[in-house]
Amino acid sequence: MSYSPLLTDLYELTMLAGYFDQGMHERPAAFDLFFRQNPFRGGYAVFAGLDTALSYLEALSFSGEELAYLENLRIFKPDFLAYLADFRFTGSITAPPEGAVVFGGEPLITVEGGLAEAQFVETALLNIINFQTLAATKAARIKLAAGDATVLEFGLRRAQGPDGGLSAARAAFIGGVRSTSNVLAGMRYGIPVRGTHAHSWIMAFPDELAAFRCYANEFPDSCVLLIDTYDTLKCGLPNALTVARELKERGHDLAGVRIDSGDLAYLSRQVRAAFDEAGFPGVKIVASNELDENVIESMRREGSRIDIYGVGTRLATCAGEGGGALGGVYKLVSMDGEPKLKLTSDVAKATLPDRKKVLRALAPDGSFILDLIALRDEEILPGAVVFDPANPVQHVRIPEQARLVELRSMVMRDGARCVPTPDLERSADLASQQLQLLPDGCLRLVNPHIYKVSISSGLNTLRLKLMNHIQSKYRT
Amino acid sequence: MSYSPLLTDLYELTMLAGYFDQGMHERPAAFDLFFRQNPFRGGYAVFAGLDTALSYLEALSFSGEELAYLENLRIFKPDFLAYLADFRFTGSITAPPEGAVVFGGEPLITVEGGLAEAQFVETALLNIINFQTLAATKAARIKLAAGDATVLEFGLRRAQGPDGGLSAARAAFIGGVRSTSNVLAGMRYGIPVRGTHAHSWIMAFPDELAAFRCYANEFPDSCVLLIDTYDTLKCGLPNALTVARELKERGHDLAGVRIDSGDLAYLSRQVRAAFDEAGFPGVKIVASNELDENVIESMRREGSRIDIYGVGTRLATCAGEGGGALGGVYKLVSMDGEPKLKLTSDVAKATLPDRKKVLRALAPDGSFILDLIALRDEEILPGAVVFDPANPVQHVRIPEQARLVELRSMVMRDGARCVPTPDLERSADLASQQLQLLPDGCLRLVNPHIYKVSISSGLNTLRLKLMNHIQSKYRT
Description:
Chain A is an alpha/beta fold. The first copy, chain A, folds into two domains: 10-135 and 323-474, nicotinate phosphoribosyltransferase, CATH 3.20.140; 195-307, Aldolase class I (TIM Barrel). Chain A is built from 16 helices and 20 strands. In chain A, the strands form five sheets. In chain A, strands 12-11-1-5-3-18-19 form a seven-stranded antiparallel β-sheet. A five-stranded parallel β-sheet of chain A has the order 6-10-9-8-7. The first copy, chain A, has a four-stranded mixed β-sheet with strand order 17-13-14-20. In chain A, strand 13 and strand 14 form a beta hairpin. In chain A, helix 6 (122-146) packs parallel to helix 13 (293-301) and helix 11 (232-249) runs parallel beside helix 12. The longest helix of chain A is centred in the N-terminal third of the chain and has 25 residues, at 122-146. Chain A starts with 9 loop residues before the first helix and ends with a helix. The interface between A and B is large, with 108 and 106 residues. Chains A, B: Pfam families: NAPRTase_C (PF17956), NAPRTase_N (PF17767). Chains A, B: GO terms for molecular function: glycosyltransferase activity; nicotinate phosphoribosyltransferase activity.
């Protein structure tokens, strides 16, 4: 997909015009993209969208039509428009790999480059990373709730626009939901596509049994019958059993049945018992209807017998705490080599200045102990004392036996990718592995354990110094 | 924008393959697209997305690459793939104009055509209409809450993907939010684009006053200064006053200031008083930060002095009751000229069979009395008795003095548009006018008056007959 450079907020362009006019546009700058709170009040997030973001940056340039539109707005000077005609992204990008488990407060993407180019990409990067990271996280929650059952994403019809459905399918795959009904996502991203049929299929035939028979004839080895059109237990189930027997006589197996209404947990037990009793233990039960991680978890707790969860609306729109948006922000952290800090009304939430690295402390068994944000060139060793960014007098020591690994690496340099892009499968595997390495309780859906994200001594000292400086300058 | 035909659920294609194989694909069918509950537990919805949907239908065809992908799935037969190569939408579409105020339970779009083509477009139509109608409705709620103040949409960075932002800006315009920060929405849809600057602009300069001065020099006649970077009242406000005076000396007017944090209602009163006292009553106050219709309404109630509300995340993602999705569905209502009905576990929620018209009963002053869904060829006159679809024994009479107008018209015939497309401005005007014609209490944000949507005697009788038929056939 190609993104127009005009997919941005007007203020990016007005700021650029100002920087250009002042001759500030090429002064070296660094911005951090991060979110403050884990989505869904959960214990983690799954980073996604990087490949989409890098493709956007590589292709960034203004067409003649786009420049003509900007000219017609009559707010930009000719020399600035001429500058835009040659505008490309030539900076560098530091980021975790897609699928990495990340946490609120950590710099995810750091953009370095001239002030203008690094500022300009704010809106598009936020748009891409906010949504895909949110959807990957939602998918991980749903997949973890479903346990060994399969989850199928089929939210396209309720997604927020066509790309909402497409990006959600991509991100959901990274988060662990490895099949989709979205055929375009299948073609574009190689995601396995799956589906059953609609109630209208049943209604287009004289009766339900005729509709089932016809579908089974068409797809004898992959047939999933929707059994709730008229009455799941009185009519759909007996008709599906009839078709299962007929298929067997012809050497095929009914793949499954889908239940889309009613008490899914209760119905799944009844349907399972009936197929087992009739000698069809291999028929899968698919359930759908406004599912999410909470519904799935409670149905499993009461002994539902569901093999495949079809999850649509609430996955594709990332419904839940937070209202369908990840609150990612993009803040200037360095300019001309000088660290920059943004205060907020809550002093403990001041940004983390300067260019930084993110280290993850691993126990000898590979499990995650804590994350540490440090200055880029600061030496950090196991045993170091680290600080709580929300309460700088709180500190802990990194265990001596911990191993420190960098969460991020430079993935684009001088506007060109400098590492190969991992395929989606590898990103999904990474997420799946990392989620199992979190401390106990981080995966809990409600009131999870909060993973520790600390800052280094050097960063803590610099931040306090800049905070004092700003407060004495502006708030006296 | 062009939509790939693969932007669909796999099951549409498997059903089509089945219909094609059975020779059923050209049998005449009609489907209704509708939602059951007004979004946000509100009193209405604003219909949007039709033009996008018609463009999709007009352009619908499979490319060689798309057909090759489908072939590689190894679930479709060669003759069906050959059929898809020539597949076009040749049916008809009946719909209200964009901007029309509509209600839960009413058929919005009716698609008539061959069974295959009418079935196939389900997913894409739902995707387009669900989101744009939801966003237009959210925008209407926000605009109505804001009263005479201006609302600016700037949710792109938190929208659900790039198209989430673009479709939201388009739909929001129809709903009454007539400016956006989204430059691409400006170019593509002619929506006025607006913006200020970011905190990073301030931080890129030695101090706040220098940053303000520079921005004012760049845009002396359209300068809106963000005054909360360090401290709104102690620092941002006095610096903005300085710049307002300096601009005035040079013959320009400071356009406004923006407040993006803190108690917006309180701060707006302080800032208003300071500018008024200094002789700048024309400086506008822009407020932003997690706004929606509820926050705006309560701030206005406590006497805030805000001229322009910048609304981002919660508009672009349609946050609120319902989790960011309109639950639109798409149901077969007629085949081979025979009416079709879908039962649900709640009998009162059975679908409305057959091809229908939607009539709106208007009082002599033009205000809306009730909507009535009737069979397409049924004659309805003022004075007719109409029924509650959820409780068929409840009935009322249409007032004798009422005027009945059709809500919908045929907008596409044989696959081609048959009415000119109104521009976005006219759609927005229509929404604005119709919202004022609703009965008292329908516009209330919480627990609104529920507008009456009735069914005709003919439709009621047909529906009861089909319900009895299905129940005796399948549920005994």
